[in-house]
TrEMBL record:
It comes from Bimuria novae-zelandiae CBS 107.79. One of its GO terms (biological process) is UDP catabolic process. PANTHER family: ADENOSINE/GUANOSINE DIPHOSPHATASE, NUCLEOSIDE-DIPHOSPHATASE MIG-23. The keyword Transmembrane applies. GO terms for molecular function: ATP binding; GDP phosphatase activity; ribonucleoside triphosphate phosphatase activity; UDP phosphatase activity. This is Nucleoside diphosphatase.
Length: 701
């Protein structure tokens, strides 16, 4: 066992799935190495440990059995390249799905998640003790909480509260995330707001290396439909509704003279597809674009629980003197992909500068923008990005300043009370200089060269749960309702840790029968039934051949002995199944193999209709085979003196003309010949004269 713990998180989004690998020192190793133990485990990753593939797992809703071989297999293979082999079985695996899986029908969503878990257990040895917890669709609020943990972990607010004092005994940062479908906000309100809105907060409990609990009360909410793509779709539909019979629709959120086609649902139609739609023609007036996108905030909706920000959803008042926010995803890409900040990651977000840069770009003619794309004026920017950036910028500005209420840096004077914040971190790439988080908002992609991903927050929470609690507190790590103790909805970071000792003995069961061990008896019974049906359906000849093979493989003894008359007494092997289930007697029996001579011509058994019946050549002089059925075997006396048969059985044998008494007795003395008769009513008939052979002989022979 090494000194490192590992964890694997699969971020299953709408467009694809990205695998992240993390590692941290085991608790005992960390306690030896770290001088100050009142800090969280140090979770690290590497750029090459991350891999993303397309499309998302939600596309497998109608055929979930393909999600393993066609999708997960590549991700698992990548993870297994970097997690040491002897640590795989101790490494927790999580697949946490977001927007794409949330909109799947319930049955399809459950089927995909079930198949994900089954495939992971069947093909890997990763720790997966609880599928409901390790493989799930997480709500937007949980995604936002994990992002909040990531931001504060990377910025250092957890481990160094004094160095991150924002005033009013506040040392954490707010978190903003915006994707294509939704947007999230997470922050710890100031003390006054936290007390006023205690029922609206989420209790988060971490654990430091010294085993002490670390608790925070965080407000988290998500705005569905307020991601950039769905907001754009709502905007286009409003534009089409404004004039139902127009041939062209002027769009101030497109660069001047840019043209795109959209369908009735407001989605862009790809050029060259031949599909008909509605033509949008750009006017490039950014001020009008800002005005047109403002109603999409839906601030006019009734607020049932004051205060509210967007869409009538309750949010505690934000104190921007102490709440400084970092924005990721679209907040970063929309401010850094095209505009001046793309070349200067160290530049703060300044509303006045940013709005001017957007206005200058969007007022350009589309022909000039196309030339700039070809000459890479804005780096790796394609036409689609250039067409979308004007709307995205207007939406971001409206959400930030009119929706959330972030002060407009560059236009509005900030309260000097927050100037004492001297937080220093590296933002952006490796060459980004250290800077202070003095402003109420900062767009980031990386902090201290680590990507700001909510998956890191998930793994920090899990790593904290692996630390043994100290003697004064054993409260579980996780999150839930803001009530004392362990609330009913409290969610722990993962299932019970199951140290890998030796799973070789049980591996066959896991691979064959997946999760349910109760399937084993049913499977064995089903197999036995199939074998029995096959046995009785294969015909007498195949049954006989099978019995002979089984007797030869599993039997014991065997061989032949020769009697004085020159014939052989072949001992029939007692096989693996010596019971009457396969037509065999339980006692040891013999077969008589006849050779040339008079005795061979004289000795012949009568016909006996049975599944065990053997056929042979009917011409005289040929070798004939005598068999015993095991049903009426003469009983050998075991008392002292020469062996003899019961008198009634001997009488039967001599009365049937099987052989002269002297020959019969002679055979008994040497080999214990067993007569194939079991009652006086069975009359001996020659094989050639048997009515059964006359009717079926041609077929049987």
């Amino acid at each position: 066992m090494g000194k490192w713990n590992y964890g694997v998180v699969l971020d299953a989004g709408s467009s694809g799935t990205r695998v992240h690998i993390y590692k941290w020192l085991k608790s005992d190793q960390a306690r030896k190495k770290e001088s100050g133990l009142h800090k969280l485990p140090e979770v690290s990753t590497d750029k090459k440990w991350t891999k993303k593939i397309h499309p998302g797992i939600s596309t497998f809703g109608s055929h979930p059995h393909d999600v393993g071989p066609d999708h997960l297999d590549k991700l698992f293979h990548h993870a297994l390249k970097y997690v040491p082999k002897d640590e795989v079985a101790n490494t927790p695996l999580f697949l946490l799905a977001t927007a794409g899986m949330r909109i799947l029908p319930d049955l399809q969503r459950k089927s995909v998640l079930k198949e994900v878990c089954a495939y992971a257990r069947k093909t890997t040895k990763f720790q997966l003790p609880d599928c409901d917890l390790h493989v799930q669709v997480i709500p937007g609020e949980t995604e936002g909480l994990y992002g909040w943990i990531t931001a504060n972990y990377l910025l250092g607010g957890f481990d160094d509260p004094e160095g991150h004092d924002h005033g009013k005994n506040h040392h954490t940062y707010g978190f903003l995330d915006m994707g294509g479908a939704s947007a999230q906000i997470a922050f710890a309100p100031n003390a006054t707001e936290a007390e006023k809105h205690a029922n609206d907060l989420t209790l988060l409990r971490l654990r430091t290396l010294d085993g002490a609990p670390l608790e925070y009360k965080v407000f988290v909410t998500t705005w569905l439909g307020f991601g950039v793509n769905q907001a754009r779709q709502r905007y286009v539909l409003k534009l089409l509704e404004s004039s139902t019979d127009a041939k062209e629709y002027p769009d101030p959120c497109l660069p001047d003279d840019a043209v795109i086609m959209v369908n009735d649902e407001g989605k862009v139609i790809e050029s060259g597809s031949g599909k008909k739609g509605h033509k949008l023609v750009g006017t490039g007036v950014f001020s009008e674009c800002l005005t047109s996108t403002f109603p999409l905030l839906e601030k006019e909706k009734a607020c049932l629980d004051e205060p509210c920000l967007i869409n009538g959803q309750h949010t505690p008042a934000i104190d921007f003197d102490v709440n400084h926010f970092v924005g990721v995803s679209e907040y970063y890409h929309t401010t850094h992909e095209i505009f001046k900040m793309a070349a200067k990651d160290d530049e703060d977000y300044d509303f006045k500068k940013y709005q001017k840069a957007v206005n200058d770009f969007c007022s350009k003619s589309w022909k000039d923008i196309e030339k700039g794309i070809k000459s890479k004026t804005w780096g790796k920017v394609d036409e689609e990005t250039a067409q979308e950036v004007c709307f995205k910028s207007s939406w971001l500005i409206n959400v930030l300043h009119d929706g959330i209420g972030v002060p407009r840096v560059g236009l509005e004077d900030l309260n000097s009370a927050n100037k004492h914040n001297v937080t220093k971190v590296k933002v952006g790439g490796k060459h980004g200089p250290k800077k202070g988080f003095l402003n109420p908002f900062q767009a980031v992609n990386k902090i201290n060269d680590v990507e700001v991903s909510w998956t890191l927050g998930k793994m920090v929470l899990y790593a904290a749960s692996e630390v043994p609690p100290n003697a004064t507190s054993d409260l579980a790590v996780g999150f839930g309702a803001n009530v004392p103790g362990i609330p009913s909805d409290f969610q722990v970071p993962g299932g019970s840790h199951l140290p890998y000792l030796d799973q070789a003995e049980s591996e066959w069961h896991d691979r064959l029968f997946s999760e349910n061990s109760r399937r084993i008896p049913g499977f064995l019974i089903f197999t036995l039934i199939v074998l029995m049906i096959g046995y009785f359906a294969c015909g007498r000849e195949r049954r006989r051949a099978a019995r002979q093979k089984l007797g030869g493989v599993f039997g014991r003894g065997g061989g032949a002995i020769r009697n004085p008359g020159g014939s052989l007494l072949q001992r029939r092997r007692k096989g693996l199944f010596p019971t009457k289930l396969f037509g065999r007697g339980a006692t040891q029996s013999y077969e008589r193999v006849l050779e040339d001579g008079e005795a061979a011509n004289d000795f012949e058994l009568g016909s006996f209709i049975s599944d065990d019946d053997d056929h042979s050549e009917s011409s005289e002089g040929s070798a004939r085979l005598g068999r015993s059925s095991g049903w009426a075997t003469p009983q050998i006396k075991t008392e002292t003196g020469p062996p003899t048969f019961d008198s009634d059985v001997v009488a039967q044998g001599s009365g049937l003309g099987l052989a002269p008494p002297s020959v019969f007795a002679n055979a008994i003395d040497r080999g214990g010949l067993m007569s194939r008769t079991d009652s006086r009513e069975r009359v001996a008939r020659s094989r050639a004269g048997s009515p059964k052979r006359a009717k079926f002989g041609a077929v049987e022979e």
